[in-house]
Every structure is written in C-alpha cells, then in structure tokens.
Amino acid sequence: MVAKSNKSKEPDDGDRLAKGNMQIMLMSTSTTIEAKFIDYCLELSNWKVLPVGPPVQDPITNDTDDMELIDWLGTKDENSTVFVSFGSEYFLSKEDMEEVAFWLELSNVNFIWVARFPKGEEKNIEDALPKSFLERIGERGRILDKFAPQPRILNHPSTGGFISHCGWNSAMESIDFGVPIVAMPIHLDQPMIARLIVELGVAVEIVRDDDGKIHRGEIAEILKEAEEVLLALQLRLQAFLLLYSLKGVVSDLFVYTIMQPNSAS
C-alpha cells in the first residue's frame, strides 16, 4: 500500500497560468522578435497578450567606479573592440579559459573579457590564464573578474561585437545597442535564443563539433574579419533596424492595446 502525502502540491507557474483568472499577459519581447510565438500564445488562451519590449537598462553615465575602463575603451577606434561575457550563472573551467584566451590572442583584436569565478573559488586572474598572457596582450585587452558595466560597454562606439552565452537579457541589450553578437550558447534556453537571433540576422553562431567542442581558431577567424567582412556590417545594420522597431511606440500603445477585444476571441 502506498501512503499518500497530506501535503498539497504547490502550484507552479504553469498551473497558475492555466487556472488563474488573468486577462492580460505581459511578455518581455517584441513582435519584431517573436511575432509567430506571440500569435501562438493568443491561440492557446483567451488573454490579451501584450509584448512590452525587452526591458533594457539605460547606460549609467555618472558612475565614476568604471571610469578607468571606459577611458581605456575610449582610446580604441570605433567598432574595434569585442566584449566577452558568459553571464553571471556560468563559470568557465580552466580549460575553457585557456581556449578563450587563445582565441583572443590569436584574433589580435581589442577586447574586454569578464572572467568570473564561483563564490568561494575566487583566484588570482593571472593564475587562471596561460602563462604570460597578460604581458603578451598588453594594452590590447582588459580582463575583469568582477561585475562589468555591460550596458555602458555595449553602448560605447568603440565596441563592435559581443561574444555572448546568449542569455535573454544579454542578447536583448546587445540588439538594443546595435552590437552584432557572436553566439556561444552553453546550456538551458541559450541554444534556442542563439538560433532565434541568428535567424533575425543579428548574430553568427560558433560551430561546435559532435562532442560540443569549438575548434581552435574558429572565433579568432570571425573576430579577425569582423571589421572587414560585409556580414559583420550587415549584422550591425540589421541590429540598428531592429532597435528602432523594438523601441517603437510601446508605451503609447499600452493602454490602447489592453482596452481592445482580444484578437484571438
């Protein structure tokens, strides 16, 4: 005989959506990005679905904590610097860090690399990198082992590309600031987001082998050509076009939209 628990199951988000008495769903997206998926949500429910556009943080211009980094970035040519960050929830292994260091050194481009460590496992950044790496790159790069002012970096005219894990917020910030993405998804929903932004024409994805490994030189070649190849310029142009579509008139349409009959009913 199987004993039954007296504890009732806590409803998850799916249960709340299915059983709740909600009439409006706000989605952190845009019809420019996910029109067909928004339409699908409309077909599945009786709610009014309102895409409010990704909430992108405005760059902070009066924060003096990061001025040394921003001043350094200001010495670089327009679109000449790559920002490298894999988010706050994933940490590279020593092997992965050595690979990224190899790519950046081989590419010969300027870069800002956020290389963070798990809490309690912090280490000297120089010890985690290939021997003499910092000496070899000199003034070409900056490596941070702490929080980075991502919106300020992406919004800076010297920034021309973003090597990203493709978290939703990071992808939307990069699009909002008109910066093409070199997609390097790692886990969870990141591969799907990478595929989406590649289809939008604002990113290129790094090709992995059957074992999930990235071949040495893959990123380096993309970065070497980033300022010369038409694709990179085309990505930037499309990113800017998408930017204007995202900003649009979302705030002006908010009240109007929620007052209209649901188009799916």
From TrEMBL:
The keyword DNA damage does not apply. This is UDP-glucose:glucosyltransferase. Belongs to the UDP-glycosyltransferase family. Gene3D superfamilies: Glycogen Phosphorylase B. GO terms for biological process: glycoside biosynthetic process. Keywords: Glycosyltransferase, Transferase. PANTHER family: GLYCOSYLTRANSFERASE. Pfam families: UDPGT. Coiled coil: none annotated. GO terms for molecular function: UDP-glucosyltransferase activity. It comes from the Eukaryota. Transmembrane segments: none annotated. SUPFAM superfamilies: UDP-Glycosyltransferase/glycogen phosphorylase.
